[in-house]
């Protein structure tokens, strides 16, 4: 039966006094009546008046009625079952999934219900509680094992139900998430771990790790470093392949030594076409391997344009022109197109045509423009810089500041004044050193990887010459300043600019040929100029994604159990975000076609997902429409499956399961020795029911029916008074 408790905001003594006062007032009112009425009716009227007044007083004291109901909740034993792909391995102790299912049919498990309620849950990369368990509940297709996540989910449910023991059936190999030991200690519930599998080394050869470049260039050799692991073999030979599709790009033969060993296998390939490429590394199978699913792994690499077209324009022959040109020609990733201006303002290599400028990925201007430079050529170069082609500018004493102002809107500095001409025709030329700013030491433009410290190389460079004075634009980034002796000035010497997808880089001094002639004892000095030029050109030619329509999957490789998610960005011709576009993504592969319409998130962003699909390679195309017109499209590829993390470790992790049991007060069992499980559970001191108190509260003062009762009492009193002719 429920328990009732009435509480008020007033002391109970005041409530009782109020009750007495209500009765006293009612008695005073009805002690004499006109006309006189029978005693019985008088008592009824006094009772109605007293009760109504008392209820009014009670409402003022804010009465709260509490109802308590007590129930007994039985102890709960939760059984967690590993549903990952590693349970399909067949080792020396048999088929793991068959061992797990047979363990669930032992008397120890059939008798669990006599101890209390039994709840089941399956887990792989996520944990799913089961309302009812059957052998069909296990699919053994999970592509990850997250034991810590399963225990964390169970900890959230333990506060709702009386979980007093956990039975964990798994091979102990947690492939995702954090260590389950911490979660096990946090949950504070005994774990009885049952190991499924064998702890001995199995005959197996697998791809442990693949390291290669995520971004590379067409036509360049790309190394692929593979780590191969083997166990249980004696001098067998295997072949390791690097494949793209059905073609073999490289191969190596490895002789497997006795015991458990790892081998470093060096492969390489030369990509031909630009775009995203899917490759795989595979080791040939051997008889009696415990699993062939870990013999192959896949990866993606993005291949960029084979060689960057660099347009080299010089105002006149000079040592700087010769050394900079030689350094650029030594870079195999660059294709150099050289134009050197003659005294008549023409180029000896021919006219600077629009086609030449269109093909350029980057412009390198050395001592240009000069006094005789063509206005038409300057306008064409300015147009190329305006269109987004990066510009690398090296000043010299022959640069004409007046004509340089034609390019000023694309430069990172403002041209301040012409160099003053001194007596004898010389200028106010002075020698200065370059000082790289401390906050720019990690900048990829000035970072010299061939030296132990790039900044040390910069500090040891011979001096440059400067002539005139120039100021950095507010939006420019100053990388290096002028240093005279040991004093660093505020005047910029090396600076870059990146505004509205237009980049430029400028060295405001000349005499860089001296940098190539540094003493050979300085580490990194031999390649310092080459690396600086390469860094600058790579920075200038690295473009942010400028496509107005950008639709892509959130990952390149998905597991077979997770949804395929897409994100998108949509912009108009002026790169303003478009929020109300219809973005339809069509996915093709595996003999089927699926479509999803992405949901707008605001500010031109979109997202959407498809349900998990079968393993394989897929292509997608995205169509974007807005205001009844086609805005554009995008396309790409992704893969499902091929990660095989569940087969990287084929031995049972008995040590982890023993630690889980020991740290929580449980016990470890081999799958064939679970006969004492029920008895050990019964011996747990906390394996008993718990009393659960369910409480509910009713705010009587806040109920409209209370007011109705008071009105009814006064109404009945009034009716009886009028019925008997009372005033």
Class from helix and strand fractions: alpha/beta
Overall pLDDT confidence: 87
CATH fold node name of the largest domain? Rossmann fold
What is the radius of gyration?
A: 41 Å
Apparent shape:
extended
Which blocks of ≥5 consecutive residues have pLDDT under 50? 419-426
Look at the structure and give the CATH class of the largest domain: Alpha Beta
Fraction of residues in helix? 10-25%
Strand order of the largest sheet: 19-18-20-21-28-27-26-23-24
What is the tally of beta strands?
Answer: 39
**DSSP helix count?**
16
Task: Provide the β-strand percentage band.
Answer: 35-45%
- Give the N-to-C terminal Cα separation: 47 Å
CATH architecture of the largest domain: 3-Layer(aba) Sandwich
Essential attributes:
single chain, 727 residues, alpha/beta, Rossmann fold, Immunoglobulin-like, 5 domains, 6-stranded mixed β-sheet, 16 helices, 39 strands, extended
Question: Mind explaining what this structure looks like?
Answer:
The protein has 727 residues and is α/β, with parallel strands linked by helices. The protein has 5 domains: 3-70 and 697-723, no CATH class; 75-200 and 651-671, 3-Layer(aba) Sandwich (Rossmann fold); 204-304, Immunoglobulin-like (Sandwich); 308-541, 3-Layer(aba) Sandwich (Rossmann fold); 549-638, Immunoglobulin-like. It contains 16 helices and 39 strands. The strands form 9 sheets. A 9-stranded mixed beta sheet has the order 19-18-20-21-28-27-26-23-24, with helices on both faces. A hairpin with a 2-residue loop joins strand 36 and strand 37.
């Amino acid at each position: 039966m429920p328990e009732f408790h009435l509480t008020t905001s007033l002391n109970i003594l005041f409530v009782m006094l109020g009750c007495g006062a209500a009765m006293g007032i009612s008695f005073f009112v009805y002690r004499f009546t006109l006309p006189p009425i029978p005693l019985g009716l008088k008592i009824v009227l006094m009772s109605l008046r007293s009760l109504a007044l008392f209820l009014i007083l009670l409402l003022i004291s804010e009465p709260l009625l509490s109802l308590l109901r007590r129930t007994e909740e039985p102890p709960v034993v939760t059984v967690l079952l590993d549903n990952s792909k590693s349970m399909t391995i067949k080792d020396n102790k048999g088929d793991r999934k068959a061992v797990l299912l047979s363990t669930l049919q032992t008397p120890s498990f059939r008798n669990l219900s006599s101890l209390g309620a039994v709840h089941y849950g399956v887990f792989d990369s996520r944990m799913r509680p089961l309302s009812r368990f059957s052998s069909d509940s296990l699919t053994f297709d999970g592509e990850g094992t997250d034991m810590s996540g399963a225990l964390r989910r169970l900890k959230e449910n333990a506060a709702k139900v009386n979980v007093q023991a956990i039975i964990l059936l798994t091979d102990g190999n947690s492939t995702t998430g954090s260590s389950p030991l911490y979660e096990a200690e946090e949950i504070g519930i005994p774990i009885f771990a049952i190991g499924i599998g064998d702890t001995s080394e199995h005959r197996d050869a697998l791809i442990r790790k693949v390291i290669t470049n995520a971004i590379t260039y067409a036509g360049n050799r790309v190394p692929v470093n593979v780590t191969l692991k083997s166990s249980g073999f004696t001098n067998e030979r295997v072949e390791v392949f690097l494949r793209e599709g059905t073609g073999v790009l490289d191969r190596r033969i490895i002789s497997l030594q006795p015991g458990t060993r790892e081998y470093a296998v060096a492969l390489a390939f030369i990509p031909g076409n630009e775009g995203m490429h899917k490759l795989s590394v595979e080791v040939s199978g051997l008889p009696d391997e415990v699993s062939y699913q870990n013999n192959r792994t896949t990866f993606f690499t993005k291949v960029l344009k084979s060689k960057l077209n660099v347009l080299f324009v010089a105002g006149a022959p000079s040592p700087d022109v010769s050394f900079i040109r030689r350094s650029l020609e030594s870079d195999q990733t660059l294709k150099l197109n050289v134009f050197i201006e003659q005294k008549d303002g023409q180029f000896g290599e021919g006219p600077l045509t629009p086609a030449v400028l269109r093909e350029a990925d980057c412009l390198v201007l050395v001592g240009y423009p000069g006094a005789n430079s063509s206005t038409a050529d300057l306008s064409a170069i300015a147009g190329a810089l305006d269109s987004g082609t990066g510009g690398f500018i090296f000043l010299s004493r022959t640069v004409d500041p007046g004509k340089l102002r034609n390019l000023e809107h694309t430069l990172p500095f403002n041209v301040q004044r012409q160099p003053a001409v001194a007596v004898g025709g010389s200028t106010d030329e002075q020698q200065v050193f370059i000082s790289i700013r401390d906050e720019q030491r990690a900048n990829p433009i000035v970072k010299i990887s061939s030296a132990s410290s790039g900044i040390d190389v910069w500090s040891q460079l011979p001096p440059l010459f400067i002539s005139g004075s120039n100021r950095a634009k507010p939006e420019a980034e100053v990388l290096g300043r002028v240093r005279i002796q040991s004093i660093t000035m505020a005047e910029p010497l090396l600076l870059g600019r990146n505004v509205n997808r237009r980049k430029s880089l400028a060295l405001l001094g000349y005499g860089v040929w001296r940098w190539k002639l540094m003493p050979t004892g300085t580490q990194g000095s031999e390649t310092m100029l080459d690396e600086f030029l390469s860094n600058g050109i790579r920075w200038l030619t690295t473009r942010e994604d400028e496509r107005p329509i950008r639709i892509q999957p959130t990952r390149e490789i998905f597991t077979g159990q997770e949804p395929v998610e897409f994100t998108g960005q949509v912009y108009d011709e002026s790169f303003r975000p478009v929020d109300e576009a219809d973005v339809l993504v069509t996915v093709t592969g595996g003999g089927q076609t699926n479509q999803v319409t992405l949901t707008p998130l605001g500010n031109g962003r979109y997202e959407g997902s498809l349900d998990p699909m079968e393993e394989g390679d897929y292509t997608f195309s995205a169509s974007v429409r807005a205001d009844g017109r086609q805005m554009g499209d995008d396309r790409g590829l992704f893969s499902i499956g091929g990660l095989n993390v569940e087969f990287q470790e084929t031995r049972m992790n008995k040590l982890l399961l023993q630690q889980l049991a020991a740290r929580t007060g449980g016990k470890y069992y081999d799958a064939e020795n679970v006969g004492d499980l029920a008895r050990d559970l019964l011996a747990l001191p906390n394996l008993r029911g718990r009393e659960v108190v369910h409480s509910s509260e009713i705010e009587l003062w806040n109920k409209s029916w209370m007011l109705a009762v008071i009105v009814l009492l006064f109404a009945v009193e009034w009716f009886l008074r009028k019925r008997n002719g009372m005033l």
